[in-house]
Each structure stands twice: as structure tokens, then as C-alpha cells.
Design a protein that fits this description.
There is one protein chain. By secondary structure, this protein is α+β, with helices and mostly antiparallel strands. The chain has a single domain, classed as Sandwich (Immunoglobulin-like). It has two helices and nine strands. The strands form two sheets. Strands 1, 2, 4, 5, 7 and 8 form a six-stranded antiparallel β-sheet that branches. A three-stranded antiparallel β-sheet has the order 6-3-9, with no helix packed on it. Pfam families: Fimbrial.
Length: about 190
Amino acid sequence: MKRSIISLAMLPFLSVGMAHAAEITDEGQLIIQATVEGSSCHFNSNGGDSAIIDMGTISTSDVYKIGIGAVSSTKVWNTDADSIEIICPSTVELKNITFSPTKFSEHPGLLQDDGGDTTGVGFAVDFYNTATSFVNINENDQVVDVSGLKGESIGNEGVKYTLKFDARWARLAQVVKAGDVKSTIKFTVETD
């Protein structure tokens, strides 16, 4: 019987403790934090994501002086207008660039107009993969090693790489016609 009384005596104290515990509420927060980083490199907004090599005008008589499937000896290149700037973090280096021209002519390595060969005139395009050497863009999905391309430190922003191109006129057909010619080359930059 003593055991029962002790049990009964303890029961009211337990109930009171539970009642007080139920009235006290504490709130807390779980904060989840992360940073989403974009592509490691980006185009310089001033330089844009494209460049135009303005070949100017060439007369059909000058194109006829070029052999069919051959290119002129004169390169057209302007360091300011014909370059694209890419900015990468200082811990990232350029590795490869893959070039994908819209349309090649039947002549190896010569680009024709994006809409087809309507004038008999096209281009040969070179890309400077180092400060002193270049490669001819002569196949689709062409991978070019750019690990030798040196960038310019721009402080906290990272490193600026300048991609330079030049082009030459090409004769694609026996008959040459007057008209506009435009060739587009898309490219993908790969980093380490």
C-alpha cells in the first residue's frame, strides 16, 4: 500500500511539470546557404561575344585573279575590331576552342556564304592560338589547343584572353557574281 501512495503522490507533480513544459515554446531556424557559380569564363561585355572581320569590297575582276579553290595572299585583320575578349578567374586557364563553321565549300578549308554559294566567293579564316602562330579553320568541329595563349591579368576580375582572327578572300567557282557574302563560325571555349 505504501508503494501506491508514493505513486499517487508523484503523479500530480509529474502532471504539473508536463503542463509547464507544454506552455514554453522556443523557435529556431535552419539556414541553408550556398553559392551558385556561373560558367568559369565569360565574354568581356565591352568586347561582346562576337567579332566581325569586315572584308570590305572586292571587285569580281580581282576575284578572277585568284585560282579556283585558292585564296588571296592579302590578309584582312584589325586588332581592335577582329578580336573577342574572354575573362576567366585567375585560377582557370584556357585549354581548347572548338570551331564550328556554318558552311564549308567543296574546296577544303574554304568557307562559303551561310546561305550557300551564290557568288563563287568565300573566305579562309585563321585563328591565332598563340601570340605568334595561327591555325587555319579548315574543318567542322575543329579543336584547337589554346594552352599557349597568354592572358593579361586584370586584377580581381581575373585574366583577360584576346582571341584574334584574320581572313583572306577565296575563289570558289569558275563564275564569280557580285553580291554579299557572310560566313559565320561558332566556337566553344574549354578551360582547365
